[in-house]
Specification:
It is a single chain. With 274 residues, the chain is of the alpha/beta class. It has a single domain, classed as Rossmann fold, CATH 3.40.50.1360. 37% of the residues lie in helices and 16% in strands. It contains 9 helices and 10 strands. It has helices at residues 9-26, 41-54, 86-98, 115-128, 165-176, 195-198, 214-222, 247-250, 256-268, and strands at 2-6, 31-34, 62-65, 67-69, 105-106, 134-137, 159-162, 189-192, 203-208, 240-246. It has a 7-stranded parallel beta sheet. A 3-stranded antiparallel beta sheet has the order 4-8-7, covered by helices on one side. β9, α7 and β10 (240-246) form a beta-alpha-beta unit. α1 crosses α2 (41-54) and α2 (41-54) packs parallel to α3. The longest helix has 18 residues, at 9-26. It is globular. 46% of the residues are buried. The mean pLDDT is 93. It binds 2-phosphoglycolic acid. 2-phosphoglycolic acid binds at residues 37-39, 138-140, 144, 174.
Length: 274
């Protein structure tokens, strides 16, 4: 696990965008796993800039999003019409800006009438696409990846979950209210890729910023592996992981000097994977 510590949110975002851009150039038909939330917005902005100004080409890329509220989202007759859906978020923040063909994007269908069967289909679709080359992740205030709330099995597959009050509150303040949603209409259920699904990606890039998440990031990266902090599953990941943090969120890591040392030495020997 490479832990890269950047000065601020902007530098964290640029670093993540460069990693994704390198993959897109190297493998024009790569499969990306993508998150929503406030964390990846800077990364998405930079990818849009790279598309517009540097011609970074997403036309062959396939994407799978981590999660979507249930009872909201992609209405197939009116794609991306629901303002508070994650499908809409992705369209606004990334998909329209990088001009990716929409049929190559996948956000769990929040309108599905058969959620259990749908979750199995989502897993199949990922498999049929050849699996995820790079999974970008944030981390929730309660340590979740996707909507895998505390207590979710670390072997979970794509499934329907019940959101915690903390997640509802966090997402209300940061996102749902700003998109014009009504509190009482906020869904309590969601579809999320499972932790087991996420761990099958060929590469993981996790982002976090801000002092509010310093404690939970330290627990996820350095604490015990536990279903109470589902992002701690990163410690079980067998492959290549890059965690990109800003100074504030890294403040409670006990091995911060070692992480900086590793980055310096790897940079010296040109073995950093970004
Ligand atoms: P945030 O959400 O990026 O808005 O903090 C992250 C998450 O809940 O996974």
């Amino acid at each position: 696990m490479d832990v890269l510590i950047r000065n601020n949110y902007k530098d964290m975002s640029l670093c993540a965008a460069r990693i994704i851009a390198a993959l897109v150039r190297e493998k024009p038909n790569a499969v990306l796993g993508l998150p929503t939330g406030s964390t990846p917005i800077g990364t998405y902005k930079e990818l849009v800039r790279m598309h517009r100004e540097e011609g970074l080409d997403f036309s062959g890329i396939t994407t799978f999003n981590l999660d979507e509220y249930l009872g909201i989202g992609k209405d197939l007759s009116k794609p991306y019409a629901q303002d508070q859906s994650y499908a809409r978020f992705m369209w606004e923040e990334l998909f329209k800006g990088i001009e990716i063909p929409l049929e190559q994007t996948h956000v769990p269908d929040g309108w599905t009438k058969t959620p259990e069967a749908y979750c199995a289909q989502y897993e199949d679709a990922i498999r049929q696409a050849g699996g995820i080359d790079l999974q970008l992740l944030g981390i929730g205030g309660n340590g979740h990846w996707g909507f895998n709330e505390p207590g979710t099995s670390l072997a979970s597959r794509t499934q329907v979950v019940t959101l915690t009050q903390q997640t509802l509150d966090d997402n209300w303040a940061l996102f749902y209210s700003k998109a014009g949603g009504r509190r009482e209409e906020m869904p309590h259920f969601a579809i999320t890729m499972g932790i087991g699904t996420i761990l099958e990606a060929r590469r993981i890039v996790m982002l976090a910023s801000g002092s509010g998440k310093a404690e939970i990031v330290a627990r996820a990266l350095e604490g015990p592996v536990t279903a109470q902090v589902t992002a701690s599953a990163i410690q079980l990941y067998p492959g290549n992981t890059t965690v990109i943090l800003d100074e504030e969120v890294a403040a409670k890591l006990s091995r911060i000097d070692y992480y900086r040392h590793v980055e310096r030495v790897k940079a010296q020997y040109h073995t950093l994977l970004y």
